[in-house]
Amino acid sequence: MFQTEYEFTLPKGYADGEGNLHKTGVMRLATAADEILPLKDPRVQQNPAYLTIILLSRVVTRLGDVPAVNPRIIEELFASDLSYLQGFYRKINGDGTTVINARCPKCEHEFEVNIGMGE
Asked: Is this model's pTM higher than 0.90 or not?
């Protein structure tokens, strides 16, 4: 079966207004519409960097117990978490694989890690 959703864990996590921390989530593969439609958004037209916020709010389908992921949630992420999601987006939508190369910090052994869900 073709996998279209991938689990992730944020480095720091989203802290909601009640002080709850949300670190785990799910991102789905992007569609052409996900990348094209945000270009019509006035916030993106005023500030092209905002495209990342809109795009991630469309493809992150779950973030902890947050009822709905929207641009405001993505805006409130720590910079390291935003960077992580951008890299994760590129990984699952770019080459179609969720296998990354890793190295043990102690023994320096190199190995592959599958960061995808259920594989």
From this structure: no
